[in-house]
Design goal:
By secondary structure, the protein is α+β, with helices and mostly antiparallel strands. It contains 9 helices and 4 strands, in the order ααααααααββαββ. It has helices at about 15-20, 20-35, 45-60, 65-75, 90-100, 105-120, 130-140, 160-165, 195-215; strands spanning about 165-175, 180-185, 215-220, 225.
């Protein structure tokens, strides 16, 4: 991301932040902390997936490529605050990204990115913009067994069990019907559907609110049955 002094790019791309050594260190460090705390995977797999889904949400709904790209970057970087602490990681992550990109990204774009990062968690976040809404929906849709680090622990940890039971997850955006449908396939021999709601109800409420800011209806379909 080298350029003449005082000159900023028109925007920032996913490829640029992926190549940034400082930001890559943040993601790797955050995932190590999460592993130490016993959480599911929050590393490069999750970062790349959330970034790409966030882009597709806005792209499919007809938002500009510029906004979709900002959502992609924010989605990729949304969890870097975990390298400090799980608590308030949205806010600390926003500050870390603001510091890392402050001389590399136009101010308005940086403001949109850090606001989305700061507001992606249900405890203290809100869908404050289309970019923010896309990141929320992308992040909360990543429920899958590949995130579980130790399958042998699923009997004891409900978060691991629910994630391990999720054989497939797909966020379907229908621009004509203005619906955003999270489609899950869950092995009920591993985890009952009620356990999903036990730990993820707050996330689904946040997804509904995020979809509404995009003038869409949020739906949740599990094993072919629409539940919300």
């Amino acid at each position: 991301m080298n350029r003449p002094a005082g000159q900023l790019p028109a925007s920032v791309t996913l490829e640029q932040v992926q190549a940034d050594e400082e930001l890559s260190l943040y993601i790797a460090s955050a995932d190590r902390v999460m592993e130490g705390l016993g959480f599911t995977e929050h590393g490069f797999r999750h970062a790349n997936l959330v970034g790409k889904i966030a882009y597709q949400v806005l792209h499919r709904l007809g938002f500009s490529d510029h906004d979709a790209n900002l959502a992609c970057v924010a989605g990729y970087l949304h969890d870097v605050g975990n390298m400090l602490s799980r608590e308030a990681h949205g806010q600390t992550g926003a500050l870390l990204v603001c510091h890392a990109l402050r001389d590399k990204v136009p101010g308005a774009d940086l403001a949109a990115i850090v606001a989305a990062i700061a507001n992606h968690e249900e405890a203290d976040g809100h869908a404050v913009s289309p970019v923010s809404s896309a990141v929320i929906l992308a992040d909360k849709s990543d429920v899958h067994r590949s995130r579980v680090r130790k399958s042998g622990q699923i009997e004891f940890d409900i978060h691991d069990r629910v994630n391990y039971a999720a054989e497939q997850s797909f966020l379907r955006v229908d621009s004509d019907a203005r619906t955003i449908n999270l489609e899950l396939t869950i092995d009920t021999e591993i985890s009952q559907v009620m356990e999903y709601f036990e730990i993820f109800l707050g996330r689904m409420v946040m997804c509904r609110q995020a979809a509404e800011t995009l003038e869409c209806r949020f739906r949740l379909t599990i094993n072919g049955a629409e539940l919300a």
